[in-house]
């Protein structure tokens, strides 16, 4: 038997032990990589090759950039929905995992050797990193721009701190987890009743209580409680992505609820007033400037409405996790390129009337600009856009992050060999 570390006498639950912790760890070993990968996918979708992902300068921690695809049109809706949805679902599991290992986190002496010191450092990165990511992530989907720092930058660097701790912890503890799950049959332990619940006699992990109190819940009951809590969180958040009748149940995502009236009754993250866009800027005097090389074309909204109209269903999918699918009508961007005399586009840039802001101008790849469903949208669901939804015109493209569906468009510029 190994030597047990000292711990506070309050940690006396008989269900604590390497098996219980390993079950929770095995679930997180599946979920956490998905949440992490989809988070980095979101960073890539913003277009780091165009210098508009945040943070921009990430040094050697920069992941490979690539042309963000336009198909399937629901791609960003899926990846960001998974990132936020699974991020919320895993909260009860993470809290249960932390509860199960508290004796190890505060054991004395805190450092026993160089190897133990390295393990403690990895735990600090793991626990500190995941708590920081959860707290900032939850606050970001609950409240509008409350941080005194860039959420995107902090979340990106926090993810790498977590990854360092996670990888080190998996390397150190994976054999222990596998051994615990193999030597203690799951179904056998799950059949043990509350009255018969006692610590594992051969648990040398330092987690099991040496002087346990009578059990108030069985291992089966504890795992059911954790799983039920995760399922409950899923029910309260899935409507943010699926929409429809479940939208009203998404009480954990207040920024994903509907706003507006009639055909314009769907989500708004930023109103015209908060963006500094006025009625005077979007009235009859408004003109769209289309640029390509030395060509400049000015078009009124009435002239745009005389062009060929295209209607398509496209989602708006936001970094906070909510998404909605609406029917958009407008002028294809490829038709605007033709008006400016360009038919081969390498990149394009759209600019908003919004005077300041991180996304008042956005660069897109040529394949995005020339996609047949990429629009300068004038209407939604058969009605003119409301001012808060981008009147007189906004950008709509397949599979883009919601912040790139730029509102209150002032100009569209195309760059290509013949521009």
Structural description of this entry:
This protein is an alpha+beta fold. The chain folds into 2 domains: 18-249, no CATH class; 262-415, Sulfite Oxidase, Chain A, domain 2 (Alpha-Beta Complex). It has helices at 18-45, 75-105, 114-142, 151-183, 186-190, 219-235, 239-242, 272-275, 301-305, 333-339, 366-369, and strands spanning 288-292, 295-299, 310-317, 323-332, 347-352, 361-365, 375-380, 383-384, 394-396, 409-415. Helix 3 (114-142) packs across helix 4 (151-183).
Largest sheet: 5 strands, mixed
Number of strands: 10
- Helix share bin: 25-40%
Number of helices: 11
Protein name: Molybdopterin-dependent oxidoreductase
Keywords: Membrane, Transmembrane, Transmembrane helix
InterPro entries: Mopterin_OxRdtase_euk, OxRdtase_Mopterin-bd_dom, OxRdtase_Mopterin-bd_sf
